[in-house]
Amino acid sequence: FVNTTFGLTIGYSNTIKTDIPIFASDGRQITTVDADLLFMNGGFEFNCALRDWIGFMARFNAVARAGSNTESILASGVSAGSGFALGWEFRFMDSETSVLSGSATVGTTSVTLVDVRSYVEDPDVGLSHSYTPLVSGLGLRYAHGFNDLVGLSAFGEAGLGENPADDMENTGFWRVGAVASLNLNQRHDVPLGFALGMRTSSFPVTADNPDGNSWTWLLSIAYVGRPDFALTLDTEYERVPVDYYDVTMSYFGATIGLKYCF
After folding, report:
1. Counting CB atoms within 10 angstroms of each CB, which of 32, 42, 103, 199 has the fewest?
2. What is the rounded distance in angstroms from the CA atom of residue 192 to the CA atom of residue 186?
3. Distance between CA atoms of 76 and 49, rounded to whole angstroms?
4. Is the pLDDT of residue 206 over 90?
5. CA gap 135, 207 in Å, rounded
6. Measured distance CA(160)–CA(25) in Å, rounded
């Protein structure tokens, strides 16, 4: 159940065309801005098997965000952040076809946001802000193999921590998701796997004024020809409501992942 693994990821995403209204100080809408945003992200993860039922994990990730033009930078600013988390994984149940596991984590995130829009509206708030929220969480994961071809996994997590969108007040967060997978290696001797999934999350990813849950849809292809090595290409479509006058941002991105099991 618990393996010693090391993984690396690097990815890129871009917003799909979004028009953000710009208002004057008296509340009148004066124009709209085509706010295309670009993201670069990367990370690593290390899992250490201490017993066959318990393991220790450490994760680090970083993300940078900027507008693709002057208008989008003025409307939504620039941000950069990194996060680090430590935790434990536990096995609760393991049968021939199913696995149930749990996790406990605690992590901190460092985010710097340059918010030109807010500064123009009120210079007293300053141009840049830095946040270091601390969030802890408890999670459950379940995986079931219907046969050697098709599988299904689901996860849920609840957390408590400081919320940058609410003046760093302690807030409860949660996320749930499910993934259906297809492995062609065992039955057809083709070293490829495919996955289709979705998740929704209220966890604060950045300090970009989220205004509700994010929703993400995933399509993944992986090389699974070796039991100790996996190479994946994940494509994601994500929708995030933000506090820019009822605007919902839509993102499309791709991430390459590499994982090695010792």
Report:
1. 32
2. 10
3. 43
4. no
5. 14
6. 36
